[in-house]
Amino acid sequence: MTSQGPRFTRRGMLKVLGGSAAFAVLPGCTNDKGSSPQSSAKTKPAPLVANSPLIKPASVDQRALIVIELPGGNDGLSTLIPLESGRYHDLRPTTALSGDDVVPFVDGYGLNAALKGLGPELAVVSGVGASSPTLSHFEMLSRWWSGNPGSATGPGFLGRLCDRLSPDGQFAGISIGTIPTPALTTTKGTSIGLPTAMRLRGSDPTDLAHDRMLRKALDAMAAAPPQGPGATNHRALSQLDGVDQMLAAVPNPTGQSEELATFKEQLDFAVRAIQAGVGIRIVHLNCATAAAFDTHEGHRERHAEVFGGFADGLRHLRQQVAAAGLEDRVLVATTSEFGRRAKENNGGLDHGTASVAILSGPVYPGLHGEPLSLNELDQDGNLLTSLDLARYYATLAAWLGVEPKSVLKGGATPLDRLVAI
Amino acid sequence: MTGTPLTPLEAAHLLRRSTFGPFPGMVQDVVSRGLSHEDLVDELLAKVLPFTPNLGKADLPDDGAIDIDLEDTDDMRYYRVFKRWWVRRMASDDAGLHEKMMWFWHGVFTTSHLKVDSSNLCWRQLRTLHKLALGDFGTLLHDMTVDGAMLRFLDGDGSVAQAPNENYGREVMELFTLGLGHYTQKDVEAGSKALAGWKVIDDLTVHFQPQNGLRKDVPYLTKKVRDVNGVVDAILAQKACAEHVVGRIWEFFVGGDRDASTVESWAESFRNSGYQIKPLVRTVFLSEEFRASTNQLVRTPIEWYCATVRAAGVEGIWLPAIESLGQVPYEPPNVSGWPGGRVWLTTTQQRSRAELAMELTDLEVDALGDNPDLVEILLDRASIHNVSDATRAALTQLDQGLTASATAPEIKARTLLTAVVLCPEFASA
Between B61 and A328, whose confidence is greater? Predict the structure, then answer.
């Protein structure tokens, strides 16, 4: 395996010009170079980030985080698209996006058209990745789930946040998926996993005497001293009532037994769980099945499909958040284990490194970080990371009012003016 | 017959690891025949369920009850029938170590039908696993590399040497044979070139198209290769290969901390045997490490499900129930397969298991609802031979409570069964 040093670009970060700069996120005006007062003075692009956050954030104790994972490695260059870039088209003869597949975002960059209409309210972070990336799903998933360099055993990043947010051991996080995400593994048992095949009871569960007696038996078995792998079993058993109470407290509008089978149903549940005020602060979901974004072949069609699914879900989520009056409380953030190779491969894209992340909610809309450089590639032809995922995570921690150094090694600090903290 | 006869506890330990049970009566049978550990291992190694294309009669909504034969047909609806068919095999008394190894290899050479999009191809892949589960690892590696379902799953299908797809070329080394750190990105690229040229054509057969393959050798690992045979030989020539495979077997069948020198010694024998799987498995199962590894592992959902439905004595395999547990054949969560261990012992897994067990009807034990020895009978059916005081007390109290409140016998049986299959002793493997 090639070993690399840190893969940061030599250029600095794009400066966010506060105060004096014009707000340049103008849909429909992306190619209007005259719109920004800065462009004549410097060779750098016009300021690409708003001066103030879209929404004033709620108080820290009211804030929640919904993490949407794009599994398999989402291509940054199909998400945030360089406009008028010959190099982009050289690298991606059949997979470059243009015309109707792109909607304007900021000067020089468009967004995947699936995000149509959302541009003015999204913060896109470009260049995010691991500092010494590898091209292994397994390894990179571990890095993103754990939030620390090196392999992941023990609590995940989101799990550590839950443990901090919930000193008394109440559930603070929910993982919705076939198996719980390792990102939400905790030390104190402050998160639960809801399987997608789970049926949540209707609002009127039968309370049969034999059910109660069964619970009592399970509690008794849970109380016994642990032996070997059974130790975990006991803890899980003893939390059954806690889980049921938590689920019972989440309002179920239909009153019927509901499922968590589709992405939209899962998002609906996430919103209701936060709204219920039972202490849930973090929800993690996958927007598609495993490796859906791993577009080694037929990238164009496959990416359009899965990214479209993600974008539809995001749109739906934003509506639900607004309808629930939670706009100042909910931050939505994406993760993906890596981006994809700069140069296309027979209509497909191999594993890559740096990519982009999308945030929605009390954010400073616009383009943050450094655009993916198409000319400075590493020896494997991969894009260089300009923003370590640790800083991305530090920002999410700060949003929730958790001191970043209490959950991340290496002293990463939050990005300035990305999220309203 | 050789060696000391197995105790019920020892027999149960061996059967839990080598099958999807033990199922009711199995432990008693072994003990009554006075089998030793070695006898039983050899018996389990010899048990091979034949592989037939006919999946039996199935009820399909549009066609009614028809005979499904996956040899010649490829209908998306047959997926569910196919998966149910495999789990039914696992839950059968005639399944031995061979069937468990099929499941093990399926977790190594992961393949998801969601991407393969063909029940016929998945079925053919399973046939290959059936043929080679205890056979020659080199042949297994070769056949899986050019397997139609795998070609589709990891994008080898239609890959051309001029611009090869790297997906399989990477995963074959990272996950299936060598592990991280034992190859370079250059090896991934070279291997991908050498594996190019394979195609699944319309009739679902697999062909090699030489014009899309490599014409001359490329350096790969420590060899020079130009085709799948070269790639396989080069991988087998790496010391890391045997160690990686043995490591996976340890994780799956033994559990607990690995003893490095044991792994190395087993790996060396594996290599020296020409990578024969059966002798390796025999060595592992006869080892002291295996015999001492009681309670080191956790029953994964499929294992738990099979043991539960047989303990309950219900007819039929219910796919939605398996899906609710989150582990379904041909639907791995990602390319690295299913995790083992404590990951499965979450609160909601327990809840799903409890719901599933409480929904079982027509239990064989329904008729025993009023039997005063019901708890003992259920523990016996569940092959639990090391019940703790706490578990026994909890079960007894539950039995008494249910009796005192005049619960209907079937409900009593089902409730007690649920408690049994959720107890810590049943959860471990």
Answer: A328
Residues in chain B closer than 8 A to A297 (CB atoms)? 155, 158, 165, 167
Helix (H, G, I), strand (E, B) or coil at A102: strand
Specify the 3-state DSSP secondary structure of A67. strand
> Which amino acid is it at B4?
T
pLDDT(A418) > 90: yes
Could you tell me what percentage of chain A is helix, strand and coil, using 3-state DSSP and rounding each to the nearest 5?
30, 15, 50
Residue A359: enclosing H or E segment and its boundaries?
A: strand A355-360
Model confidence at A233, pLDDT cuts 50, 70, 90, reads low
- Greater confidence (A241 vs B226) lies with B226
CA A191 to chain centre: 17
Contact B99, B49 (CB under 8 A): yes
Inter-residue contact B249 to B281 (CB < 8 Å): yes
Identify the bridge partners of residue B136 per DSSP, sorted by sequence position.
Answer: B276
Instruction: State the Cα–Cα distance between residues A195 and B260, nearest whole angstrom.
Output: 36
pLDDT digits (tens, 9 = 90+) for A381-413: 999 999 999 999 999 999 999 999 999 988 899
**What pLDDT, in 10s, does the model give residues A79-137?**
999 998 999 999 999 999 999 999 999 999 999 999 999 999 999 999 999 988 889 89
The interface pTM score, or ipTM, of the predicted complex is: 0.84
The answer to whether B166 and A350 have CB atoms below 8 angstroms apart is yes
Cα A249 to its chain centre, rounded Å, is: 26
Q: Give the amino acid at B67.
A: D
Contact across the interface for A233 and B345, Cβ inside 8 Å: yes
Tens digit of pLDDT for each residue in A327-338? 999 999 999 999
Short-list B201, B90, B192, B168, CA closest to B335: B168
State the average pLDDT over residues B19-30: 96
Nearest to A197 among B295, B326, B343 (CB): B326
Task: Give CA–CA dist B255/B429, Å, rounded.
Answer: 10
What DSSP letter does each residue of B280-320 carry, written as one string? HHHHHHHSHHHHT-TT-SB--HHHHHHHHHHHHT--S--HH
Nearest to A186 by CA among A335, A401, A407, A405: A407
Cα B269 to Cα B275: distance, rounded to the nearest angstrom: 8
Tokens in use for A235? 């803890």
Strand partners of residue B224 = B219
Among A288, A309, A259, smallest CA distance to B112 is for A288
d(CA A220, CA A140): 41
**Closest residue of B to A174, CA-based?**
B348
Q: Of A146, A421, A122, A158, whose CA–CA distance to A281 is shortest? A: A158
A192 strand-pairing partners:
A174
For B171, half-sphere exposure in the C-beta direction (CA atoms, 13 angstrom radius) is 27
Neighbouring-strand partners of residue A363: A419
Cis-peptide into B5, omega within 30 deg: no
**Considering CB atoms only, which of B323, B334, B415 is closest to A291?**
B334
- Tell me: the pLDDT tens digits for B178-199? 999 999 999 999 999 999 999 9
* Terminal-residue alpha carbon distance, chain B: 26
Closest Cα in chain A to B169: A350
- Give the pLDDT confidence of B288-338 residue by residue, as tens digits: 999 999 988 989 999 999 999 999 998 888 888 898 888 999 999 888 889
Could you give phi then psi for residue A67, rounded to 5 degrees?
-105, 125
